[in-house]
What does this fold into?
Amino acid sequence: MILRLSILHSLYFKLKTYMNDIDTQNIELQLLLQAVYLKYGYDFRNYAKASIKRRVQHRLSKDGFESISAMQNKVLYDVSFFETLLLDLSINVTEMFRDPKFYLALRKVIIPHLKKYPFLKIWHAGCSSGEEVYSMAIILKEEGLYDRTQIYATDMNEVVLKQAKDGIFNISRLKQYTANYQKAGGQESFSDYYTAHYDHAVMSKSLKKNILFSDHNLATDGVFGEMNLIICRNVLIYFNRDLQNRVLGLFSDSLPDDGFLCLGSKESIRFSAFSDSFSDIVREEKIYRKVDTIN
Amino acid sequence: MEFEAVVIGSSAGGIKALTSVLSALPSDFPLPIIIVQHLHPQSDSYLAKILESKSELRVKQADEKEVITNGMVYIAPPNYHLLIEDDKSFSLSIEGPVNFARPSVDVLFETAIYGYRDKIIAIILTGANHDGGVGVKKIKQNGGYIIVQTPESAEADAMPKAAIAATNVDKVLPLEQIGPFLLQLVNNSVKKYSNNFDKFGRR
Ligand SMILES: C[S@@+](CC[C@H](N)C(=O)[O-])C[C@H]1O[C@@H](n2cnc3c(N)ncnc32)[C@H](O)[C@@H]1O
It folds into this structure.
């Protein structure tokens, strides 16, 4: 009996060292992401794991599941629970004129190039609830380019896309957006671009008319047209290197030589497979231009 | 216990406190040190420069996907959360503020466990909010070691107090003793474990 116990005991400790909670959770997380992909088509399998794991753990403790496996059951059988989880995982935080210095550089450096084209196509990939797109629309208007531009604004998350289409933002944030707009080189009166209501602001119709909001998943969908400028900020940080390379490949295929690509302040093309295909235009602001690699 | 990483959280008064801790460490300090200091969202990378000039260590702002190297000090970039992946590399996120903070100490500490399991020394220094409380609790539950600055020696005592209330912390020390204690703790752990290796570094 004593022998049996001690064998069990040592087996237990072996198991514990080889398979502690963290390893088990990693297995469960992998299975969950596989289940989500097979059932709903959203592919998170090549995302950076730390953020996803943390969000999943918080959902677990909030809703009182005892394990990720227990939650997986609910994800598979309850669509509305999946939608909640999708919102947890697709971090939709954004703001107007986030990083004002970037928008200032856009206005000062890229806009003069764009003025040479008779017609422009711009793609905002991972546009979330649209704040970034309306910021761009304002700059294009002020620079006299809006009427010859078609903006494609895409995200994988239809809930935020609907908000983007509506162009309705919480009034409490407008003060900060106004300050950002001014730091980004805005000269007009920012309040002309929206109508204020009690607790929300509605963006002006004249900013919306050339924006097409649509559903597009960077992990699973393909190229849909040739663009002059692609803006994809604070999306690649959520992907692993393989997925980053896939997405940068999509962008490269969507741009002619001389096309512009803008990434987030802490993202870079430099350690990717496409480093040689792009030159720095404004290095600190991660503004790149596609180079002619054939010659 | 053989430690593999040091994580530090600090807020109001933190620059002085971080300088005190880092200046006590030699240039060959064997572990990476990863810091969340609450900063204004639009500040640049001046903190890394200050800390580098006031210590013997190499200090830089952490980059996304950067592989964590022993002996380096990394600072979370302003306005981003800093996370640690299983493979001991960094990720960044613009997820909303946690405990009103981005970067948040809790986010760094919770994810440090993914990469470093129980081999973590976590330090909470001065600060005027409660960020870090959840993080130290989880690190402690997973077998890590927690050091907290005494509330009396802190410019703002809320953060040390929150950490002490959150879990059974291992050591509470006045600021000037934290650096020397950390060095001793790490040296002892390295010595103890290197005794288990033969001269070829095998166990
Ligand atoms: C943190 S937000 C960034 C929003 C905005 N670009 C900015 O910088 O403020 C990231 C957005 O990327 C979207 N996203 C994440 N994975 C995606 C994918 N595979 N395809 C398309 N959009 C994705 C999310 O839904 C979210 O709206």
Remarks:
- Residues 2-89 of chain A form one domain.
- Chain A has two domains: 2-89, 100-290.
